[in-house]
Design brief:
Length: about 300
């Protein structure tokens, strides 16, 4: 008879510092609140949407390709904001982000989440702009586009590429394969595209980036390491002594190639991932979960 204590699944949810998925959700919620408050103030002052749509929307959302060269920065900003009238869209997007992002974070660590998300947004934006050059009605698109759909598709593609046999355990006996969840998600994304070909290609670009990012990780590269190097240098300007000692201790984190954590072999990690593929995350022992958590923090 098993007399060991069964730890709650919540005990394996990382805290804010090591939870990039939570950081993205909080950032998106704060950005939405700021954007919505700005819209509310503009409505009180001018009693209409004209000024808001004239000054704020074009400065953030991705425009048509004809206006892009005077608003080039929108390729970076468009995916981080939601329309002020899209509260429920925000909620649904964050649920999808948590669904797929938590799987990716569990398997490759929190340091890969934000770079993967950002790269997928940019790749989707590039596909969207190029698609507008298609002849005739094929290049027809909305006046602007805003929201993280390309990033969400990239995260979903990365999760499927990492563990195609993964199952979400809603109860101990009822599970849903990740491929089914991803299929429902893809269907909803295509329907919400309005069937504009540039929007569909935006989703495609995000998905290809998510898949390619995982391939690079498996090949031993860290495409997003420069973001943390840059953040570390910026932080060292504020607290140089503290960060100097931290960088000496963790200098192996800033190499171009992936190196397994000391004491944890790559075969050990692969065996744990295979077990997740076959039986789900909840089948892991406490020791296996701790190994996976330590490997993901490097």
């Amino acid at each position: 008879m098993n007399t060991g204590r069964k730890r709650s699944a919540l005990s394996y949810i990382p805290g804010y510092t090591n939870n990039a998925v939570l950081q993205l959700i909080i950032f998106s919620a704060v950005a939405y609140v700021i954007f919505a408050l700005t819209w509310g103030v503009m409505m009180l002052v001018y009693q209409d949407n004209v000024n808001f749509e004239h000054y704020f929307i074009p400065a953030i959302s991705l425009p048509t390709i004809h206006s892009f060269f005077t608003h080039w920065w929108t390729l970076i900003t468009y995916g981080w904001f939601h329309n002020p009238h899209g509260f429920w869209e925000l909620v649904s997007n964050m649920l999808w982000l948590y669904c797929f992002g938590s799987v990716v974070q569990m398997l490759v660590g929190h340091r890969q989440i934000i770079p993967l998300y950002a790269y997928s947004l940019i790749a989707g934006g590039v596909f969207y702009l190029i698609a507008q050059l298609l002849p005739g009605s094929l290049g027809t698109c909305p006046p602007y586009i805003m929201g993280p759909r390309a990033g969400l598709v990239g995260m979903a593609a990365a999760a499927v590429a990492l563990t195609p046999k993964y199952r979400f355990y809603l109860t101990e006996t009822f599970t849903i394969p990740i491929m089914v969840v991803a299929g429902v998600f893809a269907f909803l994304m295509i329907v919400s595209s309005g069937f504009y070909l540039p929007v569909v290609l935006l989703l495609t670009g995000g998905g290809l980036m998510g898949f390619g990012y995982v391939k690079l990780l498996k090949a031993g590269y860290r495409p997003g390491i420069w973001m943390y190097q840059l953040a570390g240098k910026a932080e060292s300007l504020v607290t140089p002594n503290e960060n100097a000692s931290r960088n000496n201790i963790n200098s192996d984190l800033f190499t171009n190639k992936y190196k397994p954590t000391t004491g944890i072999s790559q075969k050990r990690i692969d065996d744990i991932l295979d077990k997740i593929n076959q039986k789900g995350y909840n089948s892991l022992s406490s020791e296996e979960k701790d190994v996976l958590l330590r490997a993901g923090k490097e």
